[in-house]
């Protein structure tokens, strides 16, 4: 695999800006497990191994079960996720796949039934941030380190 740019080394101010967005979401009051589910589901859709590795570990540290992590890509086929989490996952999928028709009114209303406008805004920002990180990691070929 050809070497790609290391944005952190070459343009540290860009990482500082991205880290600022990350810190905003992390400190916004969004539930930490909700945020990890968002990160994992968006990273699955985007095919970002680096982020999947990192955020599956982070989710486990927060108490997320291995079983829920394993089935997350097929979450609709289980009853492992609460209705609130299902609304978050649906919104995550539609925002991540925004070019496939945007976010439907049904999906937005489903999420709005569970969350106030402030929390909904935080969810959308969380989805936006992980999608940006996925694009950075994938385009620069960031790879997870193999654990022995």
Order of helices and strands: HHHHHHHH
Q: How many beta-strand segments?
A: 0
Q: Tell me about the largest β-sheet.
A: none
Alpha carbon gap, first and last residue: 22 Å
Q: Please identify the structural class as seen in this structure.
A: mainly alpha
Q: What's the structural domain tally?
A: 1
Kindly provide the name of the CATH class. Mainly Alpha
CATH topology: AhpD-like
Shape from CA axes?
globular
Short description:
Pfam families: CMD. This protein is mainly α.
What does this structure look like?
- The chain is mostly helical.
- The chain has a single domain, classed as AhpD-like (Up-down Bundle).
- It contains eight helices and no strands.
- The mean pLDDT is 96.
